[in-house]
Design brief:
The protein has 11 helices and 5 strands; from the N terminus they run H-H-E-H-E-H-E-H-H-H-H-H-H-E-E-H. It is 51% helix and 15% strand. Strand 1 (30-35), helix 3 (42-46) and strand 2 form a beta-alpha-beta unit. Helix 7 crosses helix 9. It has helices spanning 2-14, 18-24, 42-46, 68-80, 95-100, 108-112, 114-122, 124-128, 133-154, 156-163, 192-204; strands at residues 30-35, 53-58, 85-91, 169-176, 181-184. With 206 residues, the protein is of the alpha/beta class.
C-alpha cells in the first residue's frame, strides 16, 4: 500500500491527469498471452505503460482450445477492444516447460501441461540435437510459442475476424531472462488474403 501511494504520486506529478485519462477508456494496442512467471510481466519487459497492453497469463503460456478464460479474453480483445496485434510470449528457463519434461507428479499442472509434453514427443529428434537438457527445454519453450500462434489462428474468433477482412496479426516472441531481451521467433500469422496480396506485390516489384 505504501509503495502504491508513492508510485501514484510520482506518476501524477510526472504526468498530471494520467489516471483520469486511463479511467476514461481502455484502448490497448496489443493483446499479450504470456507465462504467469513473476519475472516476465508484460508491461515491464515490453516497455509499455498501463493501458497499452491487454494481458492474459497462465502457466507456460499454453493455448488450450478449451480454455474459456483465454478464449473469452481473446474474444474481448478482438471484438470489443479492436486489438490488431496479438503476441504469444514464452521465456527461456520456463518452470512450466521444465515441469512438463520431468518424470515427477505436479498435480493439476500435469493436465495443464499435456500439450507441452505432446510437443516434446513430436519434436523429439530435433530436441535431441541440442547440447544439454537446459537447451532442449529452451527449444521446447520456442516450439510451445509457435504452437500457440497456430492455435490462436485456428480459433473461430480469429477465423471470423479474418473473414470480415480485419487485418489482425499474431506474433510469437521469446523472452530471455539472462539479458532481458525479447526475440522474434518469426512465426507470425496474419489474414490469409492479406498475406497473399503482399506476396504478389513482392513478386511484381522491380
Amino acid at each position: 500500500m505504501a509503495r502504491n501511494r508513492v508510485w501514484s504520486a510520482q506518476r501524477q506529478a510526472a504526468e498530471p491527469g494520467y489516471f483520469a485519462r486511463l479511467a476514461s477508456h481502455q484502448a490497448p494496442e496489443f493483446f499479450w498471452i504470456g507465462c504467469s512467471d513473476s519475472r516476465v510481466p508484460a508491461n515491464v519487459v515490453a516497455g509499455l505503460d498501463p493501458g497499452e497492453v491487454f494481458v492474459h497469463r497462465n502457466v507456460a503460456n499454453v493455448v488450450h482450445s478449451s480454455d474459456m478464460n483465454l478464449l473469452s479474453t481473446l474474444e474481448f480483445a478482438v471484438e470489443a477492444l479492436s486489438i490488431r496485434q496479438i503476441i504469444i510470449c514464452g521465456h527461456y528457463g520456463c518452470g512450466g516447460v521444465r515441469a512438463a519434461t520431468e518424470d515427477l507428479p505436479h498435480g493439476l499442472a500435469d493436465h495443464w501441461l499435456e500439450p507441452v509434453r505432446r510437443l516434446e514427443r513430436l519434436h523429439a529428434l530435433d530436441l535431441a540435437c541440442e547440447p544439454d537438457l537446459a537447451a532442449r527445454r529452451d527449444r521446447l519453450a520456442e516450439y510451445n510459442v509457435i504452437e500457440g500462434v497456430r492455435r490462436v489462428a485456428e480459433t473461430p474468433i480469429l477465423q471470423r475476424a479474418w473473414a470480415r477482412g480485419e487485418d489482425i496479426a499474431i506474433h510469437g516472441l521469446i523472452y530471455d531472462l539472462s539479458d532481458g531481451l525479447l526475440r522474434d521467433l518469426h512465426c507470425s500469422m496474419a489474414r490469409p488474403q492479406q498475406v497473399a496480396l503482399q506476396a504478389a506485390a513482392q513478386e511484381v516489384s522491380p
